[in-house]
Amino acid sequence: MMMKTTRQTQRWYGYFFIGLSVLALILAGLLPLTLVERALILTTAVTLMAYGISYQTRLARGWWLALVVVGGGLILLDLVVALMTPALFLTFLEFLLPLTFLVVLLGYLRRLI
Question: How far apart are CA 48 and CA 58, in angstroms?
């Protein structure tokens, strides 16, 4: 029986997180959710996608730019959603962790290009 290398195992971890992000995107589209919940799930899905991609050995510049554009759009969407809610500060705090993690991941992915 052949053992998988660490790199092969990590690549499969990446595929797992990419699969989770696709599942989250499907659920965000199918479930009847409020705007805040839908925006939070979309943000989490893109963050999971970026995390899964971080396990890959290389990343094409076009994919990284696409993630940056989508991430920037999500940041704007989340800010607009947070400004529209009565509990502005609490809603903003809900988005803070996934957005911070997404920004850190996009910076990390920059080195894989």
Answer: 17
Classify the C-alpha dihedral 10-13-14-15 as positive or negative: positive
Give the domain extent around 24.
6-112
> pTM of the prediction?
0.85
Kindly report, residue by residue over 41-80, the tens digit of the pLDDT: 999 999 999 999 888 878 888 888 999 999 999 889 888 8
> Which tokens is 44 given?
């989490």
Q: Where is 57: in which H helix or E strand?
A: none
Report if residue 1 sits inside a domain. no
Q: Which residues contact 83 (CB under 8 A, 6 or more apart)?
A: none
Within 10 angstroms of residue 80's Cβ, the number of other Cβ atoms is 11
For residue 74, how far is the Cα from the chain centroid?
Answer: 10
Number of domains, the chain: 1
**What distance in Å separates the CA atoms of residue 18 and residue 96, rounded to the nearest whole number?**
21
Q: DSSP states of 58-73 as a string?
A: ---HHHHHHHHHHHHH
